[in-house]
Design goal:
InterPro entries: Lines_C, LINES_N, Protein_Lines. The protein is mainly α. Helix content is about 60%, strand content about 0%. A hairpin with a 2-residue loop joins strand 1 and strand 2.
Length: about 675
């Protein structure tokens, strides 16, 4: 184990850092010096900052070569007497440079903070104090720029009991650019810890951040676009505020991600940050949706949707939050929710290469592609939240506080059905379906299965271009109560907008059996595409889960699965031959049960009089029946390929459970002969 004294050529870790900073940056820079920084002085300063970064990196590399590992008691043993004061002076010296007019100086100082964090990480107590000081800097800077200093900090500064008295002077002149850089530093530290097994450090970071976030007067940011919330006369203030807001959103996204990744981190700190972030979401939407930032609006819409998605996954949203966020979706994303999902052109050009912003395209093309991505994300969240409201009454920990009866008893199903939250979810979903499903699908005469299949095809095609969301949304459909077995006996059922009727139509439009049938048809019954999904690093787990759940309900509802196929129902093919999803990897083909995708004997063609009903825009695509034989050939070919790969130990994980489920499917298929 490397001790604190062993990291350099003598002295403690903090004292050596202090000597290094004093050597290259001998004094804190005043505001006047930073504003009047000449080109020559800026170059000289950048050289000093670069030398500091390189030296600390050399120290860190030396630690790695020596194999230094933090001991379990290092947090209590490696912070020596006087080190806390030296560390305070180091941070105060560096923070003063964050007010520099030069963006290159600010960026280089931020890099120094990041390499210091990496260097101190093996020395727990010193790193913990470093993180604490950095979060206090953010809190003080925010309070100063908003002209609001909490009384607790004022008292501490007056009594000289803490680091506040040493830092308050350099933070009195905080700028939006400086605060934005602190946010970038914090996000960089979060990314350093993500994916590590250092749960203790993650807990320390979350602890400091949670305390910091709860003390910042976020309500005062409501006037961020007003002239009175500013640093006196600083140039580029609007751009600085924009940078601050972008870094804030990015930090929150990263923090929520690391909370989800590090399951063993301190639960209290996790919950505090999650709830605090939930409270900030409505404010973020207000702050970001302004005319001054219209050129970057798509970015903010994307990031806030990502943040809401991560929060939805990592915490149990209560009734009031779900209803509030649905209102926010309608207020800020209504254009995306109301846009048709069937008119979206689905081709290879409708993909996003890791981001909704592709620099090779012009602004109009970027806007169009990012809108498609945002539309999918918005619809996914809308469905997730409405279904969560609908299913609240099913959970044993049901805690609806939205106008439910005082006599509520969890076992009383009738009272649960009368809950405002459930009705709200049903009405929200029903209203959305009315805007996207043709009126002759949901009508007073009942439900039309052929039109249900057409809607299901459009829905799957809508998500086909983004695999991660495709399987997320398909798995979400399993939360809907399944009443599809009543469909064939109640074709003439009338719609009266009651809870049962809405659930009835919803469960048929989004029935997992039907969606699975259509999903296989959209893949043209090509088992190689399913195999590509299963071995994908990004979606392999979700695809395996989806197939397992689908195969279970197929086997449990075999007659219904066959019934969907024997009816002459048509599915529009949303991909032309050129635009169809292509195989991403080459696998060994299996001849067992393989479908001849070039053959047309099983394809059903639309008659001329019906072609108009199935036009997508001005372009007509071919169509085919839902085929039991097609599904059989695809899934049995998949089973054969899985067996071969697993036998050769070439499959990335154990597929035996999936193979057993496919064996059961094969047994049922044999009954069709």
């Amino acid at each position: 184990m490397a001790t604190a004294e062993a990291c350099t050529d003598g002295g403690t870790v903090i004292s050596r850092l202090f000597s290094l900073i004093e050597k290259f940056l001998p004094r804190p820079f005043t505001e006047l010096e930073l504003i009047t920084l000449t080109k020559e002085k800026e170059t000289e300063l950048l050289i000093s900052l670069s030398q500091t970064v390189n030296k600390i990196r050399c120290w860190t590399d030396g630690q790695l070569q020596q194999g230094s590992i933090r001991s379990s008691d290092s947090r209590n043993s490696d912070l020596h007497c006087g080190d806390d004061e030296l560390l305070t002076k180091i941070i105060a010296n560096l923070v003063s440079l964050l007010n520099a007019k030069s963006q290159y100086v600010r960026h280089m100082v931020g890099n120094i903070f990041l390499v210091i964090s990496e260097f101190l990480l093996p020395y727990g107590g010193s790193w913990d104090e470093f993180i604490h000081l950095l979060c206090v800097c953010f809190e003080l800077a925010m309070c100063n720029i908003l002209r609001h200093l909490p009384q607790s900090l004022v008292t501490e500064a007056d009594n000289s009991k803490s680091i506040v008295s040493n830092m308050k002077l350099v933070l009195d002149n905080s700028t939006w650019n400086g605060i934005a850089e602190i946010l970038r530093i914090l996000r960089g530290i979060v990314k350093q810890l993500k994916g590590t097994d250092d749960d203790e450090s993650v807990g320390v970071l979350l602890d400091s951040l949670s305390i910091c976030l709860t003390k910042i007067p976020w309500d005062l940011l409501n006037g961020i676009h007003d002239s009175d919330v500013k640093v006196g006369g600083s140039s580029g203030e609007a751009a600085a505020k924009l940078l601050f807001m972008g870094n804030l959103v990015q930090l929150l996204c990263s923090v929520v991600s690391v909370i989800g990744y590090e399951d063993s981190a301190g639960s209290d700190h996790k919950l505090t940050i999650l709830h605090e972030t939930c409270d900030i979401i409505p404010r973020l939407l207000v702050w970001c949706h302004v005319e001054e930032w219209s050129h970057i609006l798509q970015y903010f819409r994307h990031k806030i949707l990502m943040l809401m998605t991560k929060l939805s996954i990592h915490m149990q949203l209560d009734c009031s939050v779900l209803i509030l966020w649905l209102q926010l979706l309608h207020e800020y994303y209504q254009d995306l929710l109301s846009s048709s999902i069937s008119e979206l052109e689905c081709g290879q050009n409708d993909t996003l290469d890791g981001s909704p912003f592709l620099l090779s395209l012009d602004d109009q093309e970027v806007c169009q592609l990012s809108s498609h991505h945002l539309q999918r994300k918005s619809v996914f969240l809308f469905l997730r939240w409405t279904m969560s409201l609908i299913n609240l009454g099913k959970t044993s920990d049901f805690k609806c506080t939205c106008a439910r009866p005082n006599s509520f008893i969890e076992s009383d199903l009738k009272t649960v059905k009368d809950c405002f939250a459930k009705k709200k979810g049903l009405l929200q979903l029903h209203g959305w379906l009315q805007g996207h499903v043709p009126s002759n699908v949901l009508s007073e005469n009942g439900i039309n299965l052929d039109k249900c299949i057409k809607f299901a095809a459009s829905f799957i095609r809508f998500y086909m271009q983004e695999d991660d969301m495709l399987f997320e949304v398909l798995l979400q459909m399993f939360t809907i109560p399944s009443w599809a077995d009543r469909l064939f006996s109640e074709q003439g059922r009338a719609c009266h907008d009651t809870e049962d009727d809405i659930l009835f139509y919803m469960s048929n439009l989004f029935n997992p059996l039907l969606l699975f049938h259509v999903f296989l048809a959209e893949l043209q019954y090509d088992h190689q595409l399913l195999l590509d999904y299963l071995i994908s690093k990004d979606v392999g787990g979700k695809c395996a889960e989806y197939l397992l759940r689908c195969l279970r309900i197929v086997c449990d509802s075999w007659k219904l699965f066959v019934e969907y196929s024997v009816r002459e129902s048509l599915v529009c093919q949303g991909f032309s031959q050129e635009g169809c999803k292509r195989r991403r990897a080459s696998h060994e083909d299996s001849s067992d049960g393989r479908i001849d995708t070039t053959g047309q004997s099983k394809l059903g063609l639309l008659s001329e009089q019906n072609q108009g009903e199935f036009n997508l825009g001005s372009k007509f695509f071919g169509s085919r029946y839902l085929q039991v034989e097609g599904a059989k050939g695809c899934l049995l070919s998949l089973k054969s390929a899985l067996r071969k790969l697993h036998k050769r130990k070439l499959f990335p994980y154990n597929p035996e459970v999936l193979i057993r489920r496919l064996n059961r499917f094969e047994e049922l298929c044999d009954q069709l002969v």
